[in-house]
Amino acid sequence: MAAVRELLLETFMNLSLEEQQDFRWFLQFTLFQRNLLHISWEQPWQAGDVSQLAELMVEMCGQQSLEVTMELFMDMGRTDLVQRLSGTSSGPKAAGSSAEASAVNTTEGEEHSVDEHRPALTQKVEAMVSVIELLLETLKDLSVGMFMDVLLSQPYLHRRLLIGPVIPLHTSDIKHTVLSMVLIFGQQSVEMTTKVLKQMRRTDLVKRLSDSSLEANKTHSADERRSALIHRVATMAAVKQLLLETHKVLHDWEYKIFRRFLQLIVSRMHLPNIFGMLIDRADRADTVDLMVQTYGQLSVELTREAFMVMNRTDLVQRLSEFSSGSKGTKRNISLKNSMK
Predict the structure, then answer these.
(1) What is the pLDDT of residues 5-58, one digit of tens each?
(2) Residue 55 CB contacts under 8 Å (≥ 6 apart), including other chains
(3) 185 contact partners, CB below 8 Å, separation of at least 6
(4) 256 to 18, 136, 314, 337: CA distances (angstroms)
(5) Under DSSP, is residue 22 helix (H, G, I), strand (E, B) or coil?
(6) Pick from 207, 158, 213, 210: which is nearest to 184 by CA?
(7) Of 258 and 107, which is predicted with more confidence?
(8) First to last CA, the chain
(9) CB neighbours of 64 closer than 8 A, spacing ≥ 6?
(10) Is the pLDDT of residue 244 over 60?
(11) Quick one: which of 200, 180, 216 has its CA closest to 289?
(12) Rounded to the nearest 5°, which phi and psi values hold at 328?
């Protein structure tokens, strides 16, 4: 793996600071799609430290580090770096890697095709994209450091961070700050931003945000890499919102039963048990956060299976649209009969 690490290190030196941070977000989405544990944001991100990025890839992806890196470079539009990595491999592995990397466009095409058959999820994603674009436009000239200081002082966010580092706390870029907020607060990000701006006494930006919110914000970024990144974060945020909406339908007593069944399903699948990591005051949003961090989009199937055991066919149906099109969910989690 030392040779792979050195090759990645050399390649990552061709990324700008912004591209390095974008790369981490694209990796996060790939882990989400593949139902793998998300990147921990606990350690500060040292801007420009490509050795840290190379270590991260080797740690998260092991022998597949080169293949996954090429996929992410394709997502970022850095085909020059894809070619560089392809050229340094040899034999069948190189051919396979090139094929896998070039197949990303096909996979993306399939995703768009699937989205056409999942109108409810597509609407949620588009709504999240609009929120992200609105916040980026409003906050583009704002001091990130001051904004983050006020944001992190919010009691609700502080409590949420107790369950784990759900966002990068050491960002100096407004784009990544906005992506982090939307991943936590979803569509409530506009409300949270308004609260922070009021505390900063930026009434001009509060008015700008309010005026823009009244209009249908359909202006999407012309930057292909930025647009792709926004769409991926919006997708993760939309899935979290979908899960949270269904969790909130349950009464408190039902939710206790739901968590018990979910724990059994997770145990029988030999997946990491998140319930020991939740603090005593953890609410449903905390639970969804930790589920998505740990299980990726498999969280939807796990939730759906628990609802099936509870005979909540209404909630099963609500999640069926997503489940029928989700990728990477290959495990058999039909446990209803065994739990009766």
Answers:
(1) 999 999 999 999 888 888 988 988 988 888 776 666 555 556 567 888 888 888
(2) 5
(3) 191, 192
(4) 43, 39, 18, 20
(5) helix
(6) 158
(7) 258
(8) 47
(9) none
(10) yes
(11) 180
(12) 85, 0
Give me 235's structure tokens. Answer: 């997708």
Residue indicated by tokens 């724990």: 263
User: Rounded distance, CA 237 to CA 117, Å?
Assistant: 19
Considering the chain, what percentage of its residues have pLDDT values greater than 90? 37
- Structure-token pair, residue 93: 């592995």
**In which element (H, E) is residue 72 found?**
helix 65-75
- Inform me whether the pLDDT recorded for 275 exceeds 60: yes
Distance CA 336, CA 195 (A): 45
What pLDDT, on the 0 to 100 scale, is given for residue 48? Answer: 60
Please say if the pLDDT value at position 332 is more than 80.
Answer: no
Burial 62-100 (b: 16+ CB within 10 A, else e): eeebbbbbbbbbbbbebeebbebbbeebeeeeeeebbeb
